[in-house]
Design goal:
Structural class: mainly alpha
Number of domains: 2
Shape: elongated
Largest sheet: none
Order of helices and strands: HHHHHHHHHHHHHHHHHHHHHHHHHHHHHH
Oligomer: single chain
Number of strands: 0
Distance between the termini: 118 Å
Number of helices: 30
Helix content: 55-70%
Radius of gyration: 32 Å
Strand content: under 5%
Length: 680
């Protein structure tokens, strides 16, 4: 029996696509030796060696991340989250992703991700536990990536190289070393890969199909990027179905030529010409008719996710925090978006090949918007993107493995390319967590072909590449040890990032280094003027005691954003410290309008008006604060009424204060003294 007989009527490419897990010995006729070209891995490497190597490599390169602290978004989603503080497991599934930190309202519903934060925090918040979870999840994803490559028909060497790249590549450091920056991507990626593996494992098996749907649901409530699984499932069915039909046709044509004694052309495995193209479309329709009920199940799960999001947290798929600072494409023209999409693709390609300039943030103006089609990055990105899409589409029906591996990149990448939908970040390294696997798989196929031709010299080159990437990852992990290291590394990589300069300024201000903080804030403002940065600059000036400059910074902040309540409040506080109660009253009044339920805003307004000599308005502000439950406002109201000679009303106010006050006993004694004085 020859190899063609052993694989049925499939072409060599299609056979490898469907029978990748069959032992090598079963694919070779008895009594024959395998030709040199059939080697799938160097030397006598056993099958289990590659996953062991991938797992060990994935853990070792991130071992130094276990000593890092909790930084950046970790502070809001873990350290300062009331969900984590109270261990409120019941609210995890009924709130949005940022609910634990008030003020960050988003359209993100990721309860499974938040649940893992609470589980890691059992017994106290210990950073190493959060980092260990991320590293373990990344190792699991790396093993799943290797398994998927094998299932897709890649040989041992190709799948092993792809798995190693996935495990050690520096572009994944943000996901594995950054706790909250990567946890949702790790979970969504793991469930996406697992769901795809279940779907591919035994086509037609209802149990595998059920597990694939469960994995899809879990991925969707981990992060919205798991939606790409629907597209990958469709692509897999197309690749498998068309590849099977093409294999049958090629087998018949080869057998007919052999019977006639004709030679078989080398390019027979390729479709060419108009009739074949029409045949390809017919096969696509056949696959769609046969598989659409299976695809409908994933669409149904997606609908369930929408219902759950709406019922549990009242959310839809709407990104939050969309401003030009975090995504400069917000509000840009369609032409600018398309040109910048080309530049973004080229940027990602450079990061995949030479990942030296890595950053936690790519907001304004780290990567400038494209202004012309003639810019080198735009030309390179658009040319690469269009040619890559053409090759990918052209591979359908010809090279099933290449078509499927290309889909691993293009399908999930479309969601983060800034062409289909705008995200709340223009560029992020974590966006490539799953798309990178497609690139690594194609690189593995190429490396295996080179190995078959050149032998162990390719193994040396591949090893050096993996070691180089691993070394860069180890160095990159150190940037996440604290916030100053993280933000400083971002500024070094992209000096034109306004957001990162202001982040460095905030860390310096928290450390009491106000002069350096002010310089960082001013550098950020020289790139882009933002109300938030002016507010932080005003805070720094206020701590230094330069109230006039602080007031000027706050005024500029509210000029840029009249609805910035925090800046209005800070303006009032600083003006009071500067001895300008009229200016302070204006700031507190605006804050109380924007925050009508904030009792402190009304109380501060009352204090400012009282000092400005406007007792009637002060009394009104105190009454509003008292109605919101502020006992201090009742005491101050009594003081105002007493100064106006309204003794009876003042006594009533002091009596109400004594009934509610549970603080400093000296305040209670003072209220009683005043009651006795007014009652004489």
């Amino acid at each position: 029996m020859n190899r063609r007989a052993a694989t049925g009527a499939l072409s060599p490419v299609a056979a490898r696509f469907f029978l990748v897990n069959a032992p090598m010995a079963k694919r070779i006729s008895r009594g024959r030796k395998a030709p040199a070209a059939s080697r799938e891995y160097p030397g006598p490497t056993p099958n289990y060696a590659w996953p062991v190597l991938v797992g060990i490599a994935g853990f070792m390169v991130y071992a130094n991340a276990l000593v890092n602290g909790l930084v950046y978004d970790d502070q809001f989603l873990i350290v300062r989250s009331w969900l984590v503080e109270r261990m409120d497991f019941g609210s995890v599934f009924t709130t949005h992703y940022w609910a634990g930190y008030p003020g960050n309202e988003t359209g993100q519903y990721r309860p499974l991700t938040v649940l893992t934060f609470l589980l890691d925090a059992l017994g106290g918040i210990r950073p190493y536990r959060f980092h260990l979870t991320n590293v373990v999840l990344h190792v699991c994803c790396s093993l799943l990536a290797w398994m998927l490559c094998r299932r897709a028909g890649l040989g041992q060497f190709a799948a092993g190289f792809a798995g190693l790249l996935f495990a050690v590549h520096p572009i994944h450091s943000e996901v594995a070393a950054g706790v909250t920056f990567g946890r949702s991507d790790l979970l969504a990626g793991a469930f996406l890969l697992a769901g795809l593996l279940f779907y591919m494992r035994r086509p037609g098996s209802r149990w595998d199909y059920f597990f694939a749907l469960v994995a899809f649901f879990c991925g969707m409530i981990s992060k919205e990027s798991a939606l790409a699984l629907i597209g990958l499932v469709v692509v897999y069915d197309l690749a498998a179905g068309i590849g099977r039909a093409e294999g049958e046709n090629l087998s018949k044509e080869r057998n007919a030529k052999k019977d006639r004694g004709d030679s078989i052309p080398a390019g027979l495995d390729q479709l060419a010409g108009e009739p074949e193209r029409k045949e390809l479309f017919r096969r696509i329709l056949c696959v769609c008719r046969a598989r659409w009920p299976w695809w409908l199940g994933f669409a149904g799960v997606f609908g369930i996710c929408l219902v759950v999001r709406s019922a549990a947290a009242g959310l839809a798929f709407t990104p939050g925090g969309m401003t030009e600072l975090v995504n400069p494409l917000f509000g840009a023209s369609l032409e600018t978006r398309v040109l910048t999409a080309g530049r973004i693709l080229w940027h990602y390609v450079v990061l995949l090949v030479l990942p030296w300039r890595l950053s936690v943030d790519y907001s304004y103006n780290a990567i400038p918007l494209a202004a012309s089609l003639l810019e080198p990055g735009v030309i390179a990105g658009l040319a690469l993107g269009l040619s890559g899409l053409w090759v990918w589409g052209h591979s359908m029906g010809k090279w099933p493995r290449l078509f499927f591996c290309g889909a691993l990149f293009w399908v999930p990448y479309m969601g983060v390319s800034q062409t289909v939908v705008l995200l709340n970040s223009m560029v992020q390294e974590r966006f490539l967590y799953i798309p990178a696997l497609g690139v690594f798989a194609i690189a593995g196929i190429g490396a295996e072909r080179l190995f078959r031709r050149f032998g162990f010299g390719v193994v040396v080159v591949v090893s050096l590449v993996c070691l180089g990437y691993a070394a860069r990852t180890v160095v990159r992990n150190r940037d996440w040890r604290d916030e100053f290291s993280l933000f400083s590394s971002a500024v070094r990589a992209y000096p034109e990032s306004a957001k990162m300069h202001q982040a460095v300024g905030q860390v310096l201000a928290e450390r009491g280094q106000m002069d350096r903080a002010i310089l960082a804030f001013r550098r950020a403002l020289s790139i882009r003027e933002e109300a938030m940065i002016y507010n932080n600059l005003g805070n720094a000036y206020g701590v230094k005691g330069t109230f006039e400059q602080a007031v000027g910074a706050y005024r500029r902040a509210v000029d840029l954003d009249p609805h910035y309540a925090e800046a209005w409040m800070n303006l009032g506080v600083t003006a009071m410290r500067a001895g300008e109660p009229v200016v302070a009253a204006d700031g507190f009044r605006q804050a109380s309008v924007l925050l009508p339920e904030d009792r402190e805003a009304h109380f501060n307004l009352g204090v400012a008006l009282e000092k400005a000599g406007r007792p009637d308005e002060a009394a009104k502000a105190y009454r509003r604060s008292a109605a919101l439950g502020n006992a201090k406002a009742i005491f101050n109201l009594g003081t105002v009424l007493q100064s106006q000679g309204k003794s009876a009303e003042a006594v009533a106010a002091y009596d109400a204060f004594l009934k509610q006050w549970r603080g400093d006993p000296n305040a209670s004694s003072e209220a009683r003294r005043r009651i006795r004085l007014l009652s004489r």
